[in-house]
Amino acid sequence: METGQTALQSFNIAFLQHTGKLSEFKITLNNRFQTLQDLLKEEQQTITKYNWKGTREALTSTCQEVLCRKKHHHKEWMSVENWRTTTTKQKNTIIYKQLSTKDTQCLLIVYHQ
């Protein structure tokens, strides 16, 4: 990852459908933004980059605290059924090619006689 870039984080936003979690999220976020505003007033900094960095940190930390990280459920790359189908097709292809080759050889022998 290059300097200045952050990793994307997925949060379980389904929790926001519950009114209790939604109100907790709003209160926590308001508190963090109030703290951020107070810091900016004290230091009298209005640099946009600093404001965005603080905003992003406030959102990220609130999501981590209230919503938790989203859990990924990875599926198997290929199911057992797919493996069976693939293996069967490969075997059938080999058998077909062998039969085709034998038939062709027999025809060539008969033709040349």
Provide a concise account of the structure shown.
It comes from Schistosoma curassoni. With 113 residues, the protein is mostly helical.
Give the termini distance in whole angstroms.
71 Å
Rounded to an integer in angstroms, the radius of gyration calculated over CA atoms is 32 Å
Assign the structural class, choosing from mainly alpha, mainly beta, alpha/beta, alpha+beta, or little secondary structure. mainly alpha
Uncertain segments are none
Give the CA-based shape: rod-shaped
Tally of discrete structural domains: 2
Describe the structure.
The chain folds into 2 domains: 13-66, no CATH class; 78-113. Helices cover 68% and strands 0% of the residues. With 113 residues, the chain is an all-alpha fold. The relative contact order is 0.11. It comes from Schistosoma curassoni. This is Kinetochore protein Spc24.
Write the layout of secondary structure elements.
Blueprint: H1 19-43, H2 48-66, H3 80-112
Essential attributes:
0% strand; 113 residues; mainly alpha
